[in-house]
Write a structure and sequence with these properties.
The protein has four helices and no strands. It is mainly α.
Length: about 120
């Protein structure tokens, strides 16, 4: 089977995955903040839980894009063209890991706060 091996396509996939991670985590923050408009505790809890679920989904999106990118770089390290800045592309993983950690901390804080307000 013949297929195209274009490193820029894989790089664009990582950037798209990171964009989706940023957008979905922003949506989660909006949903959690929006839940405060409801006075019924059950509805408020369900909407906050939905926002927490989107945080978790955002983490998975970012990590999946990163792992796919790392796999591609590892498998194709020796065959990459000379114009591909391998070391710089390797540094993109730090952005994903840092942002994923931030999302995780915010998700935990929002869930703890949600559980405290539901008592």
């Amino acid at each position: 089977m013949n297929y195209s091996n274009n490193p820029h396509t894989v790089y664009n996939g990582l950037i798209s995955g990171q964009r989706n991670m940023f957008l979905s985590s922003s949506l989660a923050v909006i949903i959690i903040t929006f839940s405060n408009r409801y006075s019924t505790p059950l509805i408020k809890f369900l909407i906050k839980f939905f926002g927490f679920f989107i945080f978790i989904l955002s983490i998975f999106i970012g990590l999946k894009a990163l792992k796919d990118f790392e796999y591609y770089l590892k498998v194709n390290k020796e065959t990459l063209p000379d114009h591909i800045p391998y070391e710089q592309w390797e540094q993109w993983k730090y952005i994903s890991y840092i942002y994923t950690f931030i999302i995780f901390v915010i998700a935990i804080i929002s869930m703890v706060y949600t559980c405290d307000t539901c008592k």
